[in-house]
Design goal:
This protein is an alpha+beta fold and 104 residues long. It contains 2 helices and 4 strands. It has one domain: Nuclear Transport Factor 2, Chain: A. It has helices spanning 2-16, 21-44; strands at residues 50-59, 70-79, 82-91, 98-103. The radius of gyration is 16 Å and the shape is elongated. It starts with a helix and ends with a strand. Mean pLDDT is 82; it is low at 3-16.
Length: 104
Amino acid sequence: MKYSAFVTAACLVGLAGCQSTGQQLDAEQQQAVSTAVERVSFDMNCPSATGQVLSRQMIAPVSIRFGVERAEYTVGVEGCGKRQTIVVVCPQDGSGCFAGGPRE
């Protein structure tokens, strides 16, 4: 039973490696927007804020031996008469997305 779970996991990892850049970006985009809206709506004290992706790209690992590829999204968040732009990074290791500070 453990062997089949390992084989299944290995196949899924292999298939994930075959995704195009666009598919990888599409897969993380909703989580990136949610992360940005959560962060900025707190900062702006505006629970009704909404967000949209302004740009997105894949970023290569820092080095060949270390690091993971990551998706980077610039998200515009608007609500309560305020607007803010924020960068969200989603490492491709499955650890989830995180929002950086606001862009000024």
